[in-house]
């Protein structure tokens, strides 16, 4: 019998063919309620199975979650199923959340007919590739955050966000699924302080405050789980993992994880660290994530490897990067601490200036000066980096622009090796074309 999605009530239907219908679910030719043709089993859970099926009338593929009522009641999941159905109906219209079409029921089974997401779990893509590119990770992460924000705005906390519950459709877009452990605001799951109290979730994704059993904010634990997901997408493995569950929980509670060097951009490392903050009070919020520079623009690129390089990767070593707190300090002439960690001979070959200007305008100025001084200029495509070759090879240098804030940027002139005075004259000409802003 179909479920009325508007009033969220289930009506059972007793038929002589119920046993026959249920027992034939494994057959390729099985027809459910005369409407859905069952094709194959997609997955099995504690009290449910999920099948791929086709709507006979429309020819559209669907996924059907078959819940055994007896097993659900025995395991205490019967309330979860009702809540999952109600929540999925409530969140039905978001493009990155799996849609529910209808619910059918018999004496022993509940059939939840949902959107079929053909690409499978994002877990499979990560497993195949090892880790995703930063751009692809950002795309999926943006869609995840959009879905989670929509959930929270509707008073729903997912509480079990993980790679296994994130699906990819035929358009390579992310879909959030499985709301079986979700909680709703103003429900009996909240204590007097409006904090959730049920200990739930998948161990490797669980937030540290859940482990304390003192109550937790559902929105904040979802952010933590999103941080674990982003880490796994970008790196290829989970930040917290151990065969010993006690050791695993200790690592989570203490926030003991490591971001691999050289793989992630500064912006990506920063947002992951802020999401995996063990203190829920200082952990980044969904609204703050939406305003994060890496999340919005993706301008930050992996920091260059400061170790040995070849001529082939010289451009990569000079290329644009994001700036950290130490960089900000070192740009101030009164607080230049770089000599403490960088060889002084190297620092003698570099000059900096901080400007209120755009990188595009600076590069235009560099080209103008290079033309007047008869200096050969080669620019790296899509980056604000220029290589300068003086006449007769009398100097080689690089001009690099770093975006410091929306209004400020840093221009560096890097000499490849000790040179004569020609490069100094070029720098003076360049300075005269740009208004300098001093910190």
Describe this structure in words.
There is one protein chain. By secondary structure, the protein is of the alpha+beta class. Residues 1-28, 190-194 and 299-348 have low confidence and may be disordered. Strands 1-2-3-4-6-5 form a six-stranded antiparallel β-sheet. A five-stranded antiparallel β-sheet has the order 11-15-14-13-12, with helices on one face. The protein has 16 helices and 15 strands. The longest helix has 20 residues, at 134-153. The chain folds into three domains: 18-115, 2-Layer Sandwich (Phosphorylase Kinase, domain 1), CATH 3.30.200; 122-296, Transferase(Phosphotransferase), domain 1; 311-433, 2-Layer Sandwich (TATA-Binding Protein), CATH 3.30.310.80. The protein is 34% helix and 19% strand. The protein has helices spanning 18-23, 69-75, 78-90, 122-129, 134-153, 208-211, 218-235, 245-254, 266-275, 286-291, 293-296, 314-318, 325-331, 344-347, 359-372, 422-433; strands at 31-32, 36-44, 48-55, 61-68, 100-105, 109-115, 156-157, 166-168, 174-176, 183-184, 350-356, 376-379, 385-389, 396-403, 408-415. Helix 5 (134-153) runs antiparallel to helix 7 and helix 7 (218-235) runs antiparallel to helix 9.
């Amino acid at each position: 019998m179909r479920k009325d999605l508007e009033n969220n009530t289930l009506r059972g239907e007793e038929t002589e063919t119920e046993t026959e219908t249920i027992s034939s679910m494994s057959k390729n030719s099985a027809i459910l309620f005369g409407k859905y043709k069952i094709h194959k089993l997609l997955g099995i859970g504690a009290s449910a199975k999920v099948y791929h099926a086709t709507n006979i009338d429309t020819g559209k593929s669907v996924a059907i979650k078959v819940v055994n009522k007896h097993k659900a009641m025995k395991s205490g999941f019967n309330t979860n199923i009702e809540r999952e159905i109600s929540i999925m109906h409530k969140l039905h219209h978001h493009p990155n959340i799996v849609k529910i079409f209808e619910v059918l029921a018999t004496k022993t089974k509940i059939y939840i007919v949902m959107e079929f997401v053909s690409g499978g779990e994002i877990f499979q893509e990560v497993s195949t590739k090892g880790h995703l590119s930063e751009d692809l990770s950002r795309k999926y992460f943006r869609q995840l955050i959009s879905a989670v924000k929509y959930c929270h705005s509707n008073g729903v906390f997912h509480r079990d966000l993980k790679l296994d519950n994130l699906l990819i459709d035929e358009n390579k877009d992310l879909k959030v699924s499985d709301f079986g452990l979700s909680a709703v605001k103003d429900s009996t799951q909240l204590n007097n302080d409006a904090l959730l109290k049920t200990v739930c979730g998948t161990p490797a994704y669980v937030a540290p405050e859940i482990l304390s059993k003192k109550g937790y904010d559902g929105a904040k634990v979802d952010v933590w789980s999103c941080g674990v997901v982003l880490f796994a997408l970008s790196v290829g493995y989970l930040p917290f993992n151990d065969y010993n569950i006690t050791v695993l929980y200790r690592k989570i509670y203490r926030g003991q994880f490591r971001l691999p060097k050289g793989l992630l951009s500064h912006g990506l490392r920063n947002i992951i660290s802020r999401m995996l903050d063990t203190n829920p009070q200082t952990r980044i919020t969904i609204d703050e994530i939406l305003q994060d520079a890496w999340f919005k623009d993706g301008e930050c690129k992996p920091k260059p490897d400061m170790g040995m390089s070849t001529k082939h990767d010289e451009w990569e070593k000079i290329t644009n990067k994001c700036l950290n707190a130490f960089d900000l300090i070192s740009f101030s002439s009164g607080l230049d601490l770089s000599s403490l960690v960088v060889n002084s001979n190297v620092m003698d070959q570099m000059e900096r200036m901080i400007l209120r200007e755009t990188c595009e305008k600076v590069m235009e100025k560099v080209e103008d000066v290079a033309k007047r001084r008869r200096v050969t200029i080669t620019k790296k495509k899509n980056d604000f980096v220029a290589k300068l070759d003086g006449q007769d090879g009398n100097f080689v240098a690089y001009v690099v622009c770093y975006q410091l804030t929306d209004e400020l940027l840093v221009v560096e002139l890097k000499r490849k090796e000790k040179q004569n005075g020609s490069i100094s004259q070029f720098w003076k000409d360049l300075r005269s074309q740009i208004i300098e802003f001093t910190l």
